[in-house]
Design goal:
By secondary structure, this protein is mainly alpha-helical. The protein contains 8 helices and 3 strands, in the order αααβααββααα. It has a single domain, classed as Winged helix-like DNA-binding domain superfamily/Winged helix DNA-binding domain (Arc Repressor Mutant, subunit A). The protein has a 3-stranded antiparallel sheet with strand order 1-3-2.
Length: 165
């Protein structure tokens, strides 16, 4: 037993806890965003869905729910509950996919899109503040580093599965 404890002591971590740091950074950024979301009656998950739908507002036929789940980083069962509440609140509408009736597509309503427009002003103002504090170059570096980590950690099979979906 003592040997196991000694072996565990020798296996100390060398690198900082990157997942925890990324979560801390997310929470620090979201601390500025959440009050605006709450003013508009939105949860973090609802905002992520609206942001995705706002980015795809040009898709008049709607966005397939699987794509929304991937881009909003929500698991299917969670997305179902979020979409149900959003439809109830008049933020989105759901319909069958015209190409495949087994699939569901969603689109933001005018109310949902107006919330995206209003919230994007506050969020963009926060990003501008971050840019002024960090500097344009450092913020660009941060985006590039995050993109590089995502690319590094995304296996080719993950990408192939996503393309098939």
């Amino acid at each position: 037993m003592l040997n196991k404890l000694n072996a565990m002591k020798q296996q100390a971590f060398v690198h900082r806890n990157l997942p925890r740091l990324l979560l801390q950074a997310r929470e620090a950024v979201m601390a500025h965003t959440r009050p605006s979301l709450r003013e508009h009656g939105l949860s973090d998950q609802q905002w992520r869905v609206l942001r995705v739908l706002g980015e795809h507002a040009h898709c008049t036929e709607g966005v397939e729910t699987g794509r929304v789940a991937r881009e909003a980083f929500l698991l299917g069962p969670s997305l179902t509950g979020v979409l149900t509440r959003m439809a109830r609140d008049g933020l989105i509408e759901r319909s069958r996919c015209p190409q495949d009736a087994r699939r569901t597509v969603v689109r933001a309503t005018q109310l949902g899109l107006s919330k995206v427009a209003k919230l994007s002003e506050a969020i963009e103002a926060h990003y501008e503040w971050m840019e002024s504090e960090l500097g344009k170059q450092k913020l660009a570096q941060l985006y590039q580093l995050l993109d590089a980590v995502i690319q590094l950690e995304t296996s080719p099979t993950d990408e192939a599965v996503e393309e098939m979906a």
